[in-house]
Amino acid sequence: MQPAYAPRAEGRVHVFDTRALAWQPTSEAGIELKPVRYDNQRGLFLGLVHFAPLTRSGVHQHRGVATSFVASGGLTDYNGPIRLHEVGINPCGATHDATSYEDTVLVSRLEGPVIYPPERTDLTGLHAGSRHEAFDNPAPDVPPEINVVVDAVQCQATGVQGIARQLVYDYAGSGSDHRLVQLAMAPGARCPAWRAAAVTEFWIRGGIVEINGQVAHGNCFVIIEPGAEVHMASRFGALLLAWAEGPEVWLDADAATGPRAVRSSLYGFPVLPG
After folding, report:
1. Is it the case that residue 261 has pLDDT exceeding 90?
2. How far apart are the first and last CA of the chain?
3. Mean pLDDT of 22-27
4. Contact 87/68 with Cβ under 8 angstroms?
5. What's the whole-model pTM score?
6. Over the stretch 77-95, which tens digit does the pLDDT of each residue have?
7. Partners of 148 in the beta sheet?
8. What is the 3-state secondary structure (H, E, C) of the chain?
9. CA distances in angstroms from 218 to 73, 97, 112, 209, listed in the order given
10. Contact 227, 199 (CB under 8 A)
11. Which terminus of the chain has a smaller tally of CB atoms within 10 A, N or C?
């Protein structure tokens, strides 16, 4: 796979318009990817996954958290279906075989390798970090995914006027202190400057965000490298999914509170002082 982004440590913000990215076939007929990030050594992926109708993934086991937003269509495994505009969260150890009965596009992020049984000799590349290993389901009484109806999640204040948060997953119990949230930016919303303490990534679900002089619209991915100083605003409103591997540090001065303003976190982390 040829990803659009090569990992670097420049402290920059990168925007990728998926319309400019070609679908890349896997060796599994009917499954193709638009990889923004694809790290086959560590099993890390960010991008779009396309399932043609009547396509299946094959039995596999996740060795790290995987999250997928259903942008179109849906998938079914032994636990039942995941439907349009839901996020499916596969915890470490999740073991299943997913089938599409209609044309399906997922916005997916993998945070660890995926294991396939030895009898499956062909590793298709559907999952970055695919490996062969014998396995059983380690927790057969636990569903292989947590399905969240994103738009039904209660809105929370972020402390920034015009920006609301819906917490989709806080990674509790996963060994990672990450967050997956949906952020809604009202028309005219402007976020004070912040610095990324860790990798932070957006998928713009709809609308337009101006970020560090770049325009990110519906179906764009944004990768924010650690250390990047971020200036973001939305003139006409935006809806986006955000994966944050660590909190932001607010940078703007505020005479009432000291040299740096203290606000609640966009992503629901404890607030870091500047």
Report:
1. no
2. 39
3. 93
4. yes
5. 0.94
6. 999 999 999 999 999 999 9
7. 87
8. CCCCCCCCCCCCEEEEEHHHCCCEECCCCCEEEEEEEEECCCCEEEEEEEECCCEECCCEEECCCEEEEEEECCEEECCEEECCCEEEEECCCCEECCEECCCEEEEEEEECCEEECCCCCCCCCCCCCEEECCCCCCCCCCCCCEEEEHHHCCCEECCCCCEEEEEEECCCCCCCCCEEEEEEECCCEEEEEEEECCCEEEEEEEEEEEECCEEEECCEEEEECCCCEEEEEECCCEEEEEEECCCEEECCCECCCECCCCCCCCCCCCCECC
9. 18, 30, 27, 9
10. no
11. C
Q: How high is the mean pLDDT of the chain?
A: 93
Q: What is the homologous superfamily of the domain 21-149 according to CATH? A: Jelly Rolls (2.60.120.10)
The one-letter code for the residue type at 217 is H
Domain ranges of the chain: 21-149, 153-250
Asked if residue 231 has pLDDT above 90, the reply is yes
Radius of gyration of the chain (CA): 19
CATH number for 153-250 (one of 2.40.10.340, 2.60.120.10, 3.40.1380.10, 3.10.580.10): it is: 2.60.120.10
Q: Is 21-149's fold the same as 153-250's?
A: yes
Spatial distance between the Cα atoms of 155 and 166, rounded to a whole number of angstroms:
5
Find the length of the chain.
274
Torsion-angle region of 19 (φ positive above 0: left; ψ -120 to 50: alpha; else: beta):
alpha
106-148 per-position pLDDT tens digit:
999 999 999 999 988 788 788 999 999 999 999 999 999 999 9
